[in-house]
Every structure is written in structure tokens, then in C-alpha cells.
Amino acid sequence: MTYQNQGAFALFENSVAIDNLIFDTDSYKLSHYNQYPEGTEFVSSYIEPRRAWDDIDQVVFFGLQIELTKLAGSVVTQAMLNEAAPFLKAHGFEIFVEGWQYIIETYDGRLPILIEALPEGTIAPVGVPQMRIENTDPKCFWLVSYLETRLLRAVWYASTVCSLSHAVVGSIRERLKITDGSDAGAEFKLHDFGARGATGFEAAAIGGAAHLINSRGTDTLAGLVYARNFYGADMAGFSIPATEHSTMTAAGVDGELDQMRRFLHTNPSGLIACVSDSYDLMRAVKNYWGGALRDDVLARDGVLVVRPDSGDPVQIVPDVIEALMAKFGYGTTAQGYRLLAEKVRVIQGDGVNKDSIIRIMDVMMDRGLAIGNIAFGMGGGLLQKLDRDSLGYAMKASAIYRNGAWHDVFKDPKTAQGTKTSRKGKQGAMRNDSGRFVARPAANIPKGADALVPVFRDGNILKLHSFEDIRARAWTQL
């Protein structure tokens, strides 16, 4: 039997609502409302990526709009407060009932905060604030830090995936130009295989949408849903019919060739991909695709994409491409690199991450193979093998208004030797004379030049970004 509490299902009758906003914070923040100095009225905090992730030092800002949608409107109710108070008391905290009651009664549960941010899709160096948040009611100064958990989570994950994807697509695009003479098709060279390796549907949806800012190839359906629901994308990405080992091994070793033939005949046109290492990869490449099925492949009105799925990809990928060239032929680009006949290509999805992709492409180029021969499928390396520390994301309070004046707030632990020093005063970002984004105290930014613009105030979303606008901002900087 299941029980329903405010739209969420649970297994036990005494369940609590998982979408209760009061629960979406770190426990210790429940005690912070009375820790600020007397006379505190306003708190200003900022979010920034503090350091580079290996060679990734440019960060694509993305994902805030998803969170703003969840914060908009009346998001705190009397039922939520009545539920949270006893539940969290049992956890060890007397929560700030008066503060929440004030928000419910004065603002009908709308959050009295101002959020200012870079336009989504903006690319800025690490060390540049991407978002600023302040309370708009002096009685709600405690709310800024309370929301840190969900705001930081919303920004760091989406922006880190988007920045990783942007960097990888950029490296592919760069090498395509060298070997093929143009970057045509680069938006389909990095395919998202990450849904099954994500921690849940929402992670797959957010990360999947973030990848699609830079690419149009995905098997993560959840990302398409979020791209439409939160950014208005009609259809943000595309995929093709493809096999997996369960289908290719269903008829056993002796039936693999027949399964391959069946796959070709049931898909007489268009792009299709077939995993080919179920038993013997090179037998499949040379004897099946390049032998018994060669005429079928050439007769199709489309392209067969052969997928190796085991072994060292740095060695396997060029070996498979050259084996296919021996059977199907190849041409030479104007830049002098070999390119498979147009009916056949390769996709590598095993062992793929931001570093191995570069190693594979560099070995291909060393062997005279054009990057147009290959596409990559990236799974856990795209949506899961990263964390908040990858780009050093943090949200920090930098200024407090108390007793009639703003005061700097910062930390500078000696034991960290400067690596964790936070910024002082209300923070902003602007373009310098060379057009590069830089961090600046808000007070030092000329009027109208602050790149952090209002996007949310008192429960209302002030600015909506479309998926195509975000793509345009990010793609022009690839």
C-alpha cells in the first residue's frame, strides 16, 4: 500500500512531504536565524566557480531558471510549517517558526528575495560571480543563507555539466577544422549516454539539458523534457535507432550475423548504430560488415555507425576505422586526412571522458585519420563523474547591512593559504576594456554595466531565457 502526501507517494502513513521547501536546506542552517549580529537587516551573498578544472577555465552559466521556476509563487504554506516544526524538533531543532509565519502571512508564502545573475549561456572565466542574492525585507535577512543549499546545487551541477560538454565539443570542433576543413556536424559529435548512470531522474534531466546547450545528440530523454518545460525548446536533441548487447546476443554466437542482417533490413534508411563487439569485434568488422553484409550496407539509403564497446579505445578506434577503410574504401580530405566512405562511420562510447576523447582524436590524427570518421558517446563521464569541487563552486555571504550601514563579510583562513579567501562587499561582474568578464565590487561598477541583472524578486521571475537564446550565447563562444 502507498500513501500520498501533497502529491508525493510514500510507503508509510506517517510520511512527510518531500517538496516542503523548509526541508530543503542543511540541518545546521535551521539554527542560523539567531546567530547574526544584532541589528542585521540585509545579507548579500554571491555564487562563483573559484578555480579551473584541469584545462577548463571558462564556465557556461546554466540551470538557474529551472530552480527559479520552483521558487516562484506561493511556495511556503501553513501546512508546510505545521508539518516541519514538529518533524525538525524531533531532529534536534526549534526552527524559526516566527520567521516562516511572517513570510506566510505577509507575502502569502512568496519569498522576499532578489536574485541577480548572468544571462544563462554566458561564458565567463572562473573567479567571476555568476549570481547575487539579497533579501528584500529586513525581517528576512536569515532567508538568504537558508536558500544556499538549493541555489548552489541548482547552479553548480548544471553549469559544471554544461562547461564540461562545452569544452569537449570545443576540442572536437577544433580538430574537425584541422582534419576535415570545417566544423560541420560538430553538434552531433558528442552524444549523451549518461541517463542510466545519473543519480536520479532530475539529475539526468538537468545534466541532459545542460549538455544540449552545446550538442544536439542525446539518449537522455529526461533532458529533452526539462529543455521544453523550463526553457521552451520544441525538440532540443535527436537520436537514432541503435542496438545493444541484449539484442545482438539474443540469437547466440552463431546468430550474430543474422541479427546484424535483420537490423539492416528493418532499418532500410537513415542513420543506425550497431554494437559490434559482442564476441569478436574484428570478425564483425571484417567478415560481417565488410564481408557478408557489405553489399547490404552499401545499398542502404543511410549510414551504418559501427560501435566498438570494449578494449583500449585509443587503440581500438583507429584500428576499427582502418579495418573498415580496407573493406569499404576511403577518400582524402583537402587537408590530407583519410575519411571513410560515406556509408560507414564509427562511434565510441566505452571509456569515454574529457581526457580520453582528446587522446583518441590525437592518435587518429597521428595516423592520418579525419575526425569526421568518429563520434563519441559519453555517459558517466558527462553527467556523473564531477562534483561541486570540480570548478570549486561556492556561495558566500559578502556583505551585511546592520545598524544603518553595509559591512564587509569575508573569510580568510590562514591554514588554507589563500585558497579559500572569499570576496568582501557586495559583488558583481562586468566586462573590462578588452571585453573579458571580471569580478568587481558592485560599488565599483559603473551604472548599467553590472552583468548580474535581476531575474527574480519577491516570488516573481523577472526574466526568461529561451533554450535557443542560451544556445546562441554559448555556441558563438565555442
Structure description:
- The chain has 478 residues and is of the alpha/beta class.
- It folds into two domains: 17-159 and 386-475, nicotinate phosphoribosyltransferase (Alpha-Beta Barrel); 160-383, Alpha-Beta Barrel (TIM Barrel), CATH 3.20.20.70.
- The protein is 35% helix and 19% strand.
- The protein is built from 15 helices and 21 strands.
- The chain has helices at 64-71, 78-91, 97-107, 143-146, 148-180, 201-212, 221-231, 245-248, 256-266, 281-292, 294-299, 313-328, 354-366, 380-383, 467-475, and strands spanning 3-5, 8-10, 40-49, 58-60, 113-117, 123-125, 131-135, 190-192, 217-218, 272-275, 304-307, 330-332, 338-340, 344-348, 374-378, 393-402, 405-408, 427-431, 437-441, 453-457, 460-461.
- Strands 17-16-3-7-5-20-21 form a seven-stranded antiparallel β-sheet.
- A hairpin with a 5-residue loop joins β12 and β13 (338-340).
- The longest helix has 33 residues, at 148-180.
